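$ fold --in a.seq
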Amino acid sequence: MLLQPSKPFRSAHFFVFAASLFIFLNLVLYISIYPLTGEEDRRCIVAQEMLLSGDYFHPTVFNVPYYKKPPMHNWLIVLPNLLDGVVDRVSARLVSIIALLLTGWSLYLFLLKKHADKALIGFLAVTTNYLMLCEYGNLAETDIIITLFTSLSFIIYLSNPLQIRSVFISSLFMGAGLLTKGLSPLYFYPAVLLVACFTQQNRLRKLSLIGLHFLMSLLLPAVWLWLYSLEGSLSDLLRIFTAEVSEKSTGSVGAFLWHLIYFPGKIFIVLLPWSLILAFAFKRRIVKDEIYWSSLLMFLISLAIFTVSPESRDRYLMPAFPAFAILCSYHIDAKIVIRKSLQRMVFSILAILAAGCAVFGAIEGYFLQAAVFIVLALVIGLLLPRPLRLTHFASVLAAFMLVTYMQGLFFYRAQIRFDHQPGAREIAAHITEPLPVVAHHRVSNRTGLFLQAELQRPVFKTPRENFSEYYYLSYPAGVDSSAENFLTVPYPEDHNRDLILQLKEINCLNNSKITP
């Protein structure tokens, strides 16, 4: 007969499930209308061109080899789109949302097995810090993906560092991390090596298995590089990727000194509310085991590396955030009951802010968002007199942060940022001949992405030698006066960024020069 979990653990499971559902619903709410931002378009273009070409081993952007990132994230974006062959913003972003929740659940289950009393804090700290939850939790960026793979590699190794099976599975996830961004060793090997060196028992075996781990972690990247070399330039790939990594370690002396000052403070901010909770509820007397020391070293070494790198950004440290969450689970007592005076002060401020957001939303005509803020203010008001444990208090803070960000800043950006998809659809409707499509180099990558998805064929940024006639998409300054204009799609904020579609012919008999 199977043993049933005790009531506290059943309650914890339900709380984690409810929190996961709340996070998921909030993160997916506006991803269908939020325009692509940052590097999202590049991640999607590579995946879309994989689907169009059927070549999944040679990443390209507008049919030009792309060397700066390995393809694992693109493969994950491809998976949900294999049937229809169209990469869209929703499916691409769902990959990141699922990765965020999987990171939280894997850490929760790991701590539940090792230190059950620490599992809930660990889950909350890794899924509800500001940077992972709000800024990147629902964007098609690589950072959440590499965080998942690095976290899985870390916790599977720590589950049994003396077992070859654990080392092998951990190395596979490390290899997946290397195939995502190539920086996973920064977060993993220095910490586990130091802990192994200072371990009295089984030191030699641990060090040997870490070496084996490193060699096996190169297996997946080596297979991809071999497949890439069959039809691609491996020297160009390695040269440009190495240059991409080295550029992040350069900078002037002034930039270096400024980075030393502001970067740790910025990390403190993006880890809110947990950095603040850890500072005010820090428990000193704890039992420090191998999991603790590995997590502490992983976070501190990674923080030190990126603090002294002037070109680094806060999101580069994200794969070390699960280690920070483990530290929170050790140093924060989840059973602490918040002082009534503190809780009333904090919740009163939050309720007033939510009410103010509701008033502002109603004035601007966003009545649905205003209603959400009214409900949020009422719920926080109802919690004012109720004594809450630290976990529930922190959860309210995280829920307020998430709802305010999604219904406020995220929704606002979705309204004001220009969406290139409608224009791409209009252009695609006027491309009736099976001719190549070439876009001027200044045309947005997002327009090119949506155009490829609508046409289900490639878009080029440079015409090929065998093009005698092609559709040409340009800005007013780049049009060819001798070509026929088909369509003008206006850009609402700047006439100089209108999109103009032309039909362009090349007189190959007269050896006319091909120009984009």
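$ fold --in b.seq
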Amino acid sequence: MCGITGVYALQQNFSEIDLQRMTDAISHRGPDASGFYWNEDKSIGLGHRRLSIIDLSAAANQPMTSHNGRYVMVFNGEVYNFKEIARQLDIVPHTSSDSEIILEAFVLKGPSCVHLFNGMFAIAIYDKHEKSVYLLRDRIGVKPLYVYASNKKFAFSSEIKSLRNLSPEESKFSINKDSIHSFLYAGYIPGPYTIYNEVTKLPQGSYAKILNGEITIKKYWNPQEKIESNTTKDFNAAKQELKNLLTSSVEYRMISDVPFGTFLSGGIDSSMVTALAQNISTQPVNTFSIGFKEAKFNESEYAKNVSKHLGTHHHEFIVTENDALDLIERMMTAYDEPYADSSGIPTMLVSKMARQHVTMTLSGDGGDELFLGYGMYDWAQRLSGSKLKAFRKPVASALSILGERYRRAAKVINYPREERIKSHIFSQEQYLFSEAEINELLCDHKDESEAMQFNENYSNLKRKLSVQEEQALFDINYYLPDDLLTKVDIASMQFSLEARTPFLDYRVVEFALNLHSDLKKKEGVSKYLLKELLYDYIPKHYFDRPKWGFSIPLAKWLRGELYYLLEKYLNQEAVNKCGVVRYEYVRKLIDGFIKGDNTLYNRVWALLLLHRWMLEFKTNSTT
């Protein structure tokens, strides 16, 4: 796991100082080594910060030059099947690193080599002969890559903060107003967009070529294209295949020359990953969990019970409010654009603790999206009913006056139109702003269809999906890479910790996409097949409890210890200075929240984070 940077300009080159500052800005991603490469005329440069996981020797440092001398590479991530690729392509390695095999595979296959890779990666390769740069990103989007483009000049990095460290002449970025709309609606900004007009995310499952001042992007993997006409329906066959795939995936992701462990919340997904890891390992696996003293948010006892059953070496950290509050400012700074998923805070806490013992962890991310684990998928099913469709407006109106418990349901039911139902369900399940609310809130808004950055059309597939499967596919395309995986990448790399995601092995993803929906959810039991496999390792009674996310008591904190943030960033002067939203609406929202309406907490949080970011942007842009 590392951080990569690069610049490309055929005229008016970037300076060496530009690349140095870009790379220094992400030193936390790679504390073990740093390196730079410039071509002869200084038109193309590459930077690298290394976190050593496989082959700890200096021979595996980057930038790395190919055996034939033509190509130079910087790489972030891991390709787990590198030994098989070396054998398949008859590559004779000089190191024991996956980096070398990736580069030599590119020498032999060009960008199509990406189809051979099983892993998480963001790769940049410079072709000295052609004077071109190739950028490649993994299928699911586990590893990020941000690209700046302006006047035929390009720069790229693992984090946006690098790009903001370009010289003042280059970093005069402007705000993408449509991205503000998306952020208030979803709590994150969907790719390929960012908060800046000049910066985009290289789409997951894509590679790009920069040549002669132009960039072309090709999609090489798309979940929609992996959906087949027929599904796997046989329970026993499906269970065995899932077991084989997950075992292989976990075994791949245990390849490491440094100590590793697993994040263990005691829930289905992390317990499945941990059970398989412990089954494979000859030693007790390190497991890590955190809990809050507030009992409602403390699942650490469940994790401890699972650990005891499996025989892992468990590390538990019960955090106080002060432990979490100390990281609030760090979280708000770490994410380089507005980002409202407050579970980033506990993710940072558990990453910080784990890094004291290991350099790499496995996580359970992806299980909910692949096996219909979220409650919002039930909403997709409810809203597809003809009776509720016909009477949703009066039903929503009636529910809205029944009290706080029913207000969110009313918001979900009152979707504006069919073609936006997937993003609407997500938005309202997260207690965020609906389209109608955004229209009232923003000072300068435009038609929602123009501002919306989500594509929700999943027609022309090889088979008709259920509404729940369509909702999950929406999450695989957006929520997973642009919220959850962004969260884990930033939170873990803040502490130089690599996080690997066994559920997101592309073989597991493609299997799940073609698993019959009755095996994902059966008789009201979500993740049915996954749970049945898990119960072969851990008794079912360990999980007889309601699902609870990786949460913090944010509403309580915003009324108490964090109230100063509302006063600081959502006062009239601050709101008017930013000029994005109407202060009267903000004041009304805060008053309702302070008086006890907990359905408003995430809206307040999103506005707070937006204005903190806006004020910082305005300050940095005028200095």
